[in-house]
Design brief:
Layout lengths: L1 H17 L3 H17 L1
């Protein structure tokens, strides 16, 4: 499980760096959390 989280965070770095606002980052993190909960 730890490995999956680490890989996911590394994969998200480009997406998070593309966000210009704190609100955008929050939405991205929320969508990832929802995706993980769905599995």
């Amino acid at each position: 499980m730890k490995r999956i989280v680490i890989i996911s965070l590394i994969a998200l770095l480009p997406v998070l760096s593309a966000c210009n606002t704190i609100k955008g980052v929050g939405r991205d993190i929320e969508s990832v959390g929802e995706a993980l909960d769905g599995k």
